[in-house]
Amino acid sequence: MLPSYPIINGARCAGSMSHGRAKREIRVIKNISINNFKSINKVVLELGSLNIFIGENGAGKSNVLEAIAFAGAACSRKLDNEFLASRGIRVTAPNLMQSAFEMDAPERVIEISTATEKGTLSYKIRSSGDAYSKWEATPEIEVNSDASSQSSGLHGPLIGEAEDFLAILPSFLASSSISLKEKTKLTSELLKSIKSKPVDKGISKASFSFDEDSVFGKYFHSHKEVTRSIRKMLSGFIIYSPENTSLREFSKEGQILPLGINGEGLVKLLEVEFKERGKEYESEINKFLSVFGWFQALKFVDHDSAGFSIEVSDRYICSKDNSLDIKGANEGFLFLMFYFALFTSSYTPSFFAIDNIDASLNPKLCRRLVEQLSRLSEQYGKQVILTTHNPAVLDGINLEDDNQRLFIISRDDDGSTELRRARKSKPAVQAPPIKLSEAFLRGSLGGLPKGF
């Protein structure tokens, strides 16, 4: 019996189009603002659907990704260290998670905002300062004026579940520019509206039931689309960094299902997808893997009681009835299988990052891979950030397509991480076009060490 995986990024494509037959709508995070996180003082990132980061070692590429993952953990209300590490965040002491650029500030708060066309969801994340310090996050939300025709005009902390709202109710009322009489009315209305089922001394289940014309009803109506669109994407954000050893541990699963940050759970996910999508899935992954010159075919075999296996044919050494076990596949092949599964499954997050996409891959294969991932991200509605040090990766993107973006990450004179978007430049008259890989190596793009 197949496992019922928890869906990190919301419902499993209810009402979505058939796999591989039509493009899915890409719900993208348009803008991310990060303040006071590790090497970042303040950066603003305007994303496309496929985004590539380049820059010298230590410039802060991974820190930008970790800040987004940190906001995702706050969104999921899972800020304990074990949950941060499972998202790909390098956990250190709280004072080192915060930047040191404004030491004289009365309170050093990490602030991360994410915006879509509908509005903005922000988190202020603080350390409790205890001996065993914990992170505490305060969410806020703003609705774009044209995103809802029935905005109540209230702007305060995000209302999530009943317990969360009760916890932040004082700060919500304190921050609202409404009269004391109205605040009293709001509090009374909230308490009357919550339906709860107590178990022991706590509340195990709670729900809201509001009159749509009430103050809270109008508030929820104007904010619910923003919370849904952003939370579904942000809460599932993970930084993947696949490793050869983890990809080869075929029976091991990661802390987060279906795919762990290092590639755990790959074979199980392939099995799930094949049993749900059949020959269509097998055909598509075969086309994807055909970039290998030696590759002939991949076949999923369901042995019923004997289990599930994946067989690979090498055109040079395998006859029609002589296939290789997946355990003997080279690491580059496993990496591409991982990327295919990650980009084409609706069980995986809709917004994620891959650190060092070039790991274990031939430069020319890197270029082809990015071309294919760009296609898959559009087809399957994925938004992704890739980091790389390999110039060949850049030749796989098309800067004339606004959905594909290249960012150069560097440090400013004060040591703070900064970023710049690279755009398509027009070549001089009669000058031959220059590949992005060449421009990178020549130093005209930036992102290279300057000390040697």
Blueprint of the fold:
Layout: E1 31-37, E2 40-46, E3 50-54, H1 61-75, H2 81-86, H3 94-97, E4 110-115, E5 119-127, E6 135-143, H4 162-175, H5 180-193, E7 194-199, E8 202-208, H6 215-234, E9 239-240, H7 244-247, H8 266-277, H9 279-289, E10 295-302, E11 308-314, E12 324-325, H10 331-344, E13 351-354, H11 363-379, E14 383-387, H12 391-394, E15 404-411, E16 417-422, H13 436-442
Parallel strand pairs: 3-14, 3-15, 9-13, 13-14
Antiparallel strand pairs: 1-2, 1-4, 4-5, 5-6, 7-8, 10-11, 11-12, 15-16
Helix pairs in contact: 10-11
Briefly say what this structure is.
By secondary structure, the chain is an alpha/beta fold. It has 13 helices and 16 strands.
The largest beta-sheet arranges its strands as 9-13-14-3-15-16
Oligomer: single chain
CATH class of the domain at 16-108 and 349-452: Alpha Beta
Globular, elongated, flat, extended or rod-shaped: what is the shape? globular
Measured by DSSP, the beta-strand proportion falls in: 15-25%
Reported by name, the CATH topology of the domain at 16-108 and 349-452 is Rossmann fold
Largest sheet: 6 strands, mixed
Compute the separation of the termini in Å: 58 Å
What does it look like?
The strands form 4 sheets. Strands 9-13-14-3-15-16 form a 6-stranded mixed beta sheet. A 5-stranded antiparallel beta sheet has the order 2-1-4-5-6. Strands 10-11-12 form a 3-stranded antiparallel beta sheet. Among the domains are: 16-108 and 349-452, 3-Layer(aba) Sandwich (Rossmann fold); 239-348, no CATH class. The radius of gyration is 24 Å and the shape is globular. Helix 10 (331-344) runs parallel beside helix 11 (363-379). It has 13 helices and 16 strands. 37% of the residues are buried. The chain is an alpha/beta fold and 452 residues long.
